[in-house]
Design goal:
The chain is of the alpha/beta class and about 200 residues long. The chain contains 7 helices and 7 strands; from the N terminus they run αβαββαβαβαααββ. The chain has a domain at about 15-120 and about 165-190: Vaccinia Virus protein VP39 (Rossmann fold), CATH 3.40.50.150.
Length: about 200
């Protein structure tokens, strides 16, 4: 009997928590956040963080049936226009980029976004990321590692194409891990008072 485990990245939960604490302290102490956790699982990170910080509301989404979570595709949720979350957690094993692109047109206020990014499949980058990097052709799999820094930078700049200012971007160290952990604070150009 072969047991297959679902791929998840729990290599460095301390780094993920440290990154989220930084943004919660800096941007969400005065106004407790409304959190959307798109790949919630058992919500280990946000269960801990909600003990430490006041929150307005928490919505966890998961494809599997887990008590206390919405059982649905988080991409479809983000494509709707009727949500008002000001923290969006895209802690995906693999690619958060389609979800980021789906969320951006529907964000109505300053927002903090957490991204867990890695290569997908057989060490390749998501097609959404390749597109936003301005590469107009199919990249051979042998070249994906060599363009990693370039396409990740392009991915982190996607919000600017939707009219947002990136107030702060931070990466949490993840030595020995295969994923990269990012936090972004987004504001609309008129919200310059939030800038440092």
């Amino acid at each position: 009997m072969t047991i297959r485990s679902k791929k998840i990245d729990n290599h460095n939960p301390t780094a993920k928590l440290t990154l989220r604490r930084h943004f919660l302290r800096r941007y969400h102490l005065q106004n407790p956040p409304d959190i959307l956790d798109c790949f919630a699982g058992y919500s280990r990170l946000w269960t801990q963080l909600r003990k430490e910080f006041a929150t307005k509301h928490y919505t966890g989404i998961e494809l599997r049936r887990i008590p206390g979570r919405l059982k649905m595709d988080s991409l479809q949720y983000l494509q709707r226009q009727d949500w008002t979350h000001d923290i969006i957690d895209l802690d995906a094993y693999g690619s958060p980029w389609k979800h980021l692109v789906a969320a951006l047109p529907n964000i109505k206020q300053c927002c903090t976004i957490f991204l867990t990014a890695s290569m997908v499949g057989l060490g390749t980058h998501d097609a959404t990321l390749i597109k936003f990097a301005g590469i107009p052709f199919s990249v051979p799999s042998s070249l994906h590692r060599s363009i990693a820094q370039y396409v990740i930078r392009a991915g982190l700049c996607i919000p600017q194409r939707y009219g947002f200012q990136i107030v702060e971007a931070m990466e949490a160290p993840n030595p020995g891990g295969t994923c990269r952990y990012f936090g972004l604070r987004l504001a609309f150009p008129a919200d310059t008072a939030e800038r440092r």
